[in-house]
From TrEMBL:
Family per similarity comment: Belongs to the glycosyl hydrolase 1 family.
GO CC list: cytosol
Record's keyword terms, sorted: Glycosidase, Hydrolase
Taxonomic lineage of the native organism: Bacteria, Bacillati, Bacillota, Erysipelotrichia, Erysipelotrichales
GO biological process, one term: carbohydrate catabolic process
Gene3D superfamilies associated with the record: Glycosidases
Protein name: 6-phospho-beta-glucosidase
Length: 489
């Protein structure tokens, strides 16, 4: 069977990790603009006060804002049929609550989408990819405030109406489930724009892992995002019935570390909270039963879930389920088990898997497993893998070449796994690698953690001329796309 003829091949980026131009043409501050860089051993830090010495990677990122034509031409050369990108909310509504949208911001994305059309590339657009305006955080308390629902829906309406003839594929919130994955405040800040006042007022660097965290506010905020997403889905279908609007889940595929039934049950609980909870709400339109027990056992007052909200969730289910897949984790009740980390999670080390330089366990078989599990849970919903990639240290040779066989060796078995899943009967419609061009890492704020088929001359000390060059993997992925996933050599 193999990949269907209309399969969407491409790559994915986020505005805050690639655009730069962070206050240009009327753009307002957003959450990532307050985050400094880190490294493989040091977590990213947050600094809300202006610091002329500090280096904020998102402020210039890889300068896609000024180089989008060059980059999209390179994507077209690889044969992309889809390009996943995000609109930065702060480019459209600089404060998040402005009366009128910023025309210069709207015009920029018009130009980007026109360039995609010129090259026969379908845009897949995320409305909110960790890019909540900073004013929404400080003035409203992020999505823990129900007023922000209306602000997001207004923003979504502006985008849907402006680009209704240029964009067919939409995602509401990137990795909406990440607030469920943390004992700390990274997820609520990234995903919901929620920070505790003490941290907002801080005048010193705070590691993201040490941000304060309020469980009640987090789940209230997440619920408000569910409602905002459902309202946006309904609105989008009214504006253009041909829109395909999806959710986006950071899928943390988990295995029990041992056959110990307590490990199996612990694994089930992690999988339900981290993955199934948000998927069920957005695909099935209702809270799964296991969450009511979780709320009760964690002392969470659920009065914020109104009957009207339940109706909205039921009416605003998504058209497709999209997700990121980078690694798998093991779960155990054994506190002495060896741990291994990733950007957004930490589980027990799987002795059968190798890991990247950042501790991400590489498991292509897990992708086939994940696709089958998701199809079993949501049998009538098309699936799309919208993030999958390998962060590594790349070496530029004296002649300018970059031999990244390790990246090819990562992608090859993952693409084979998708092909096997399609043979299994999974309705997989597309695949976008993360990221097709080097960009700023969301987890560490590094440039050195490189994902792309395209190298960008930009470095963690702020040096580099932003020039682009092709890695060996560029021609390899071009061949993969041209053969519709058949030629992986």
């Amino acid at each position: 069977m193999g990949f269907p003829k209309n399969f969407l091949w491409g790559g994915a980026v986020a505005a805050n990790q690639c655009e730069g131009a962070y206050l240009e043409d009327g753009k307002g501050l957003s959450v990532p603009d307050m985050l400094l860089g880190g490294d493989v051993n040091t977590p990213r830090t947050f600094l809300p006060k202006t610091d002329e010495i500090a280096f904020y990677p998102s402020h210039e990122a890889i300068d896609f804002y000024h180089r989008y034509k060059e980059d999209i031409a390179l994507f077209a050369e690889m044969g992309f049929t889809v390009f996943r990108l995000s609109i930065n909310w702060g480019r459209i509504y600089p404060n998040g609550d402005d009366e009128e949208p910023n025309e210069e911001g709207l015009a920029f994305y018009d130009a980007v989408f026109d360039e995609c059309e010129k090259h026969g590339i379908e845009p897949l657009v995320t409305l909110c990819h960790y890019e909540i305006p900073w004013n929404i955080v400080t003035k409203y308390g992020g999505f823990s405030n129900r007023e922000v629902i209306d602000l997001f829906v207004k923003y979504a309406r502006t985008c849907f109406e402006r680009y209704k003839d240029k964009v067919k594929y939409w995602l509401t919130f990137n990795e909406i489930n990440i607030p469920c994955m943390h004992a700390g405040g990274i997820g609520p800040l990234y995903g919901l724009g929620i920070m505790e006042e003490e941290d907002i007022q801080s005048d010193h660097h705070i590691p993201l892992t040490e941000l304060k965290y309020n469980l009640q506010r987090t789940f209230e905020g997440l619920h408000n995002e569910f409602v905002a997403s459902a309202l946006a889905v309904k609105l989008g279908h009214e504006i253009n019935p041909d829109f395909m609007i999806g959710n986006m889940i950071a899928h943390e595929t988990t295995y029990p570390l041992t056959p110990n039934p307590k490990d199996v049950l612990a694994c089930m609980n992690v999988d339900d909270l981290h993955n199934n909870f948000c998927g069920d709400v957005q695909v099935r339109g209702e809270y799964p039963s296991f969450m009511w027990r979780y709320f009760k056992e964690n002392g969470i007052d659920t009065s914020f879930i109104t009957e009207e909200d339940k109706k909205i969730l039921k009416e605003g289910t998504v058209d497709m389920y999209t997700f990121s897949y980078y690694m798998t984790n093991c779960v155990t009740v054994d506190e002495k088990a060896e741990k291994i980390g990733g950007n957004m999670s930490m589980g027990a080390k799987n002795p059968y898997l190798k890991a990247s330089d950042w501790g991400w366990q590489i498991d292509p078989d897990g992708l086939r497993y994940t696709l089958n599990v998701l199809h079993g849970r949501y049998p009538h919903t098309p699936l799309m893998v919208v993030e999958n990639g390998f962060g590594a240290f790349d070496v530029v040779e004296e002649d300018g070449s970059i031999h990244d066989e390790y990246r090819i060796n990562y992608f090859r078995p993952h693409i084979e796994a998708m092909r096997e899943a399609i043979e299994d009967g999974v309705p997989l419609i597309g695949y976008t690698t993360w990221g097709p061009i080097d960009l700023v890492s969301a987890g560490t704020g590094q440039y050195a953690k490189r994902y792309g088929f395209i190298y960008v001359d930009r470095h963690d000390d702020g040096t580099g001329d932003f020039s682009r060059s092709k890695k060996d993997s560029f021609d390899w992925y071009k061949k993969v796309i041209a053969s519709n996933g058949e030629d992986l050599d």
